[in-house]
Amino acid sequence: QTSNGFRPYVHSSKPNKGMTAKREEIRQKVNDLLTSTGEREKLRDMIEEQLKKSGWNDKVKMHCKEFIKSKGVDNVSVDDVVMGVSAAARSTVPKEVKAATLERLKQFMAKNNIEI
């Protein structure tokens, strides 16, 4: 978690219904390797740092405050806030952060001989 309690979204390990068996196998292998090598935490740290530098965390925090204010602090739960701002938060992740993350994942897959 970040200092403000917000954890950047990381794709769920639940398989998509339309995902092919081969894709699911690759996804699971990558997930397992990311965890076992410690790369998952390094990747999260990199993403978190880039999001902080871009001001994204502050924007999301402000969006959360606005959401809570619009609903009334006594009428909203943490789950309500997460559901209310997650889509907007994900859609505002800077392109540079997405590109750097994708590049790092590609390098990780190449290093571990994982082909798509």
TrEMBL record:
Protein name, per record: Transcription and mRNA export factor ENY2
Pfam families: EnY2 (PF10163)
GO molecular function: transcription coactivator activity
GO biological process assignments: mRNA export from nucleus
Annotated region (Disordered), positions in chain: 1-22
PANTHER family xrefs: ENHANCER OF YELLOW 2 TRANSCRIPTION FACTOR (PTHR12514)
Lineage of source species: Eukaryota, Metazoa, Spiralia, Lophotrochozoa, Platyhelminthes
Source organism, top-level taxon: Eukaryota
Cellular component, GO annotation: nuclear pore; SAGA complex
InterPro entries cross-referenced by the UniProt entry: TF_ENY2, TF_EnY2_sf
Provenance organism: Schistocephalus solidus (Tapeworm)
